[in-house]
Specification:
The protein has about 270 residues and is mainly α. It has 13 helices and no strands.
Length: about 270
């Protein structure tokens, strides 16, 4: 084994431990009694009582926050895909002035870099005035806003891969522009739709800062629900760990099935 290979193996092992280690710790904690957590026991009797308490206890509202997150993430992802795909197609295919197209793309890139916390205050004041505070609609609007720039940039990369001649040939065969887009172009960018959808759904599912400030108990999402297991006078470590494991399952499943499309989308154009 060469020195470079040896060093590479060491970095790979360290990286794997740093990435997987925290989740394994949370998974182990979720099967512990509270007394084992306080005493730091590595050997313990596993229990499912924490999961039962989180999912089926009357005092727990975690199933409702799961539903809230599912509604917000699904609807916002659908809107992001529709608007982002049409915007990317328009910017790439139509003859916009370079000042408009480049300026819009530059602004979306800049907006995507702005810390979300700087936007929460204005959104809070606006939504309080127009009645969208503590509502699905307000939360969906914010998630669409923060995920749309990423979707437009990603879909433009996929549209660039499609030769313009394919669409023109469909139009010469009698298709109108909208038909050529729906029946010829759109099926060719399905991998891009899957990659964008997976990323938008996971970012919406994991978003915490906006949900913490723009929701109350009725519309709280999963990250806020997990954080609420830590109260002023009591921290329910075991229940918090169990809720974290449950909250991870949808995102992991979606990423598992869409992983190859996400990797392709993020690396598209990098090998040219």
């Amino acid at each position: 084994m060469t020195r470079a290979t040896w060093l590479g193996s060491v970095f790979l092992v360290v990286s794997t431990v740093l990435i997987v280690g925290p989740f394994l710790w949370i998974l182990m904690t979720s099967f512990k009694f509270q007394i084992d957590i306080y005493q730091g026991n590595w050997i313990f009797e596993p229990t499912l009582s924490n999961y039962e308490d989180v999912l089926f206890s009357r005092r727990s509202k975690f199933t409702s926050v799961l539903w809230n997150s599912m509604v917000v993430a699904t609807v916002s992802t659908t809107i992001v895909l529709v608007v982002g795909t049409l915007a990317a197609y328009s910017l790439h295919r139509f003859r916009w002035s370079p000042w408009i197209s480049r300026g819009l793309l530059a602004w979306m890139l800049f907006f995507h870099m702005i810390p979300v916390m700087t936007l929460v205050g204005p959104w809070y004041l606006i939504f309080r005035e127009i009645g969208l505070y503590n509502s699905y609609t307000g939360l969906i609007v914010t998630h669409v806003t923060i995920n749309l720039p990423m979707t437009v940039w990603l879909m433009m990369a996929f549209f660039r891969e499609i030769p313009r001649e394919i669409e023109e040939a469909a139009q010469m065969d009698g298709c109108r522009r909208i038909q050529a887009f729906l029946y010829v172009v759109l099926p060719l960018v399905v991998p891009g739709l899957i990659a964008s959808g997976v990323l938008a759904f996971i970012f919406s599912w994991n978003e915490f800062a906006i949900a913490l400030n723009l929701t109350s108990r009725a519309t709280a999402t999963v990250p806020v629900g997990v954080a609420r297991f830590a109260q002023d006078y009591e921290i329910q470590h075991a229940q918090m760990a169990a809720a974290s494991v449950v909250a991870t399952i949808p995102a992991v499943l979606i990423m598992f099935f869409g992983q190859r499309f996400v990797v392709r989308g993020l690396t598209l154009g990098s090998v040219k």
